[in-house]
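Structural prep section.
Before we set up the soaks we want a predicted structure of the protein with zinc ion in place, mainly to decide which crystallisation condition to try first. Input record follows.
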Amino acid sequence: MSTSPFNWKQFHSYRVFDEFLESFLIKRKSYVIQHDEALNLEEAFDDIEKRFVTDFDDSEATFEDKVAQQFNGASEQTKIVFANVEFLWAMPMENITPEKKRSYALRWFDEAEVVSGERYFFGYPHIIANPGSWYLRNKYFEIVAALRVLSLVTKKLGFTDLENLKTEIAKICYSSIYEGVPKGERFAVEKVCGIHSALMHLADPERHESIISASHREQICAVFGHVVEKPSADVEVLLKQIRAELYLSHGNNEDPDLKYRWFFYSKDVRPLWNDKTSKREQRVSSAIFDVRLEEDAEELEGAREEVTGLRILRSAKLANEAKLRDGYKCRACGFHFEDQIVHIHHLDPVSEYKRPKATKLEDLITLCPNCHYIAHYWLRISPEFKRLETLLAKLSAK
Ligand SMILES: [Zn+2]
Ligand SMILES: [Zn+2]
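Run finished without errors. Recording the tokens verbatim:
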């Protein structure tokens, strides 16, 4: 992984997030609406709570219509504060156009009053994610969740330091995602909200990957968790561990900045985990990934290339010896074709990731590609399939 610090602020989302916090939460000044006076955030949040949450309109009306109704006759301060929160909700997202992002503030304020330009309203690549259409569909809940985070840090008086403020925001969002939102708390939302992941990442991008969806996190951990020697129980830490294992060998066709920001969404990583929602699909994906690694390892060894990280350095000579010993025949199903199209499988692949030099001939067996994928599938279910007899019995019975 890169050792020089990554310059997050070259992308508007991270710069604007910091500016927003400085202005809105530390100086208590509006960010998105030109307004010189200090805001009384507590008072505004109380008013918003009453209009937007207590008097919640659960009709089928659109968000726009409801907001018009709920904030009818509200003070300028209430509208300014709401406009700032709505700005924060929309700002880092790709699937809301810059014009649309600005139009929210124009609902109540004139062209001249609303900040303008690419510095404030932007699209790709300055965004952090495309959270999908549910983020738009659940706008109401996402905004209530954002209000909760902002009002919690507002209540803790004395935030004069941006870094402390960001640490606190990341902490609140982390506990909202992993421990849930305490019932009865002001602006408490029970739904899983993407805004928590977004704010957590913006507040501490080095520690929290730019992943909005909870199911994306689960899928990544399920498919790749086994490559980490000592997987952390903390999902955020585990994601970083997985990233560290895969980083050198994956995503290398991406722009280095994109690889750093959206590693798991790289062209060669994303297809392995994305939409793999069932245990079975996740195991198949893990198996495909592992087989690819083993096959790559042989080629690399042949090229005498020095590669660190997850890639296995297995002797190509040893692999050939194993194929010769087995007569180029699949040990499970007997498949044989022109002394070609067979793979070499390591009976304990995970140990090979970690101690490549210790490989012995008896650790390797010849398998046809089909049996090889299936072998890794069973390995994801139980380590008992590291035993030759158990594995061959399973594969022959398939
Ligand atoms: Zn076979
Ligand atoms: Zn294998």
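Observations: The chain has three domains: 8-203, 214-273, 301-396.
Flagged for discussion at group meeting.
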